[in-house]
Design brief:
This protein is mostly helical. The protein has 7 helices and 4 strands; from the N terminus they run ααααααββαββ. It has one domain (about 1-60, about 75-165). It has helices at about 1-20, 25-45, 50-60, 70-95, 100-120, 125-130, 140-160, and strands spanning about 135, 135-140, 170, 175. The strands form 2 sheets. It has a two-stranded antiparallel sheet with strand order 1-2. β1 (about 135) and β2 (about 135-140) form a beta hairpin. α5 runs antiparallel to α7 (about 140-160). Keywords: Membrane, Transmembrane, Transmembrane helix.
Length: about 180
């Protein structure tokens, strides 16, 4: 399932890149999501999140903190949720006038980052929940891939002709025409 997730990241990267090029009003937003999809996809392909977790885990194992790690993990996860909630609220507030695909992509991206952070904190209870399988798909894969697909679809909607913010329509002669009527 890992390579399917990497493929989802690549498709989201492409869709966000296209949205950044075609949606001038929100180009920076889509460019940031494009970069985020690239970084998260590369991290997934190289298992960098597992390496980072191991780098953090090793010194804790060697110290006296390891016995009390669950308490620290709970505090860390609560902190991650608080930061994600604050970041999500701020992002949604800043994008409150944007169309639904922008707000939905913002929500999905904050949720994706929070999910990855919590998964990396690796509480045994969290691991047990993420390992639950439904129709052959783990909760871990379902949550991560669903967020990526939402981001990719929202970007694709912004690129699609006929949608406000999509690419300019062209006449048969190849000349760009306005999306709005000349009232």
């Amino acid at each position: 399932m890992g390579w399917l997730t990497v493929l989802d990241y690549v498709l989201a990267f492409i869709a966000c890149g296209m949205a950044a090029l075609s949606d001038q009003r929100n180009a920076r937003f889509w460019a940031v999501l494009c970069l985020l999809m690239l970084l998260l996809g590369a991290a997934k392909a190289t298992a960098a999140d597992l390496l980072l977790a191991d780098l953090i885990r090793e010194p804790i194992r060697d110290s006296a903190l390891y016995g009390d790690r669950q308490g620290y993990q709970e505090v860390a996860i609560a902190g991650m949720f608080a930061v994600a909630a604050a970041a999500g609220a701020l992002l949604l507030y800043r994008k409150r006038a944007a169309r639904l695909p922008i707000r939905l992509a913002a929500f999905a991206s904050v949720g994706l980052i929070a999910f990855i952070a919590v998964r990396s904190a690796s509480l045994h209870q969290v691991d047990a929940l993420l390992g639950i399988r439904l129709l052959g798909l783990s909760a871990n894969a379902a949550i991560e891939n669903a967020a990526i697909i939402v981001i990719a679809l929202c970007a694709a909607i912004r690129v699609a002709p006929g949608w406000k913010g999509g690419p300019a329509r062209t006449s048969p002669e190849g000349v760009a025409t306005s999306r709005r009527s000349n009232r």
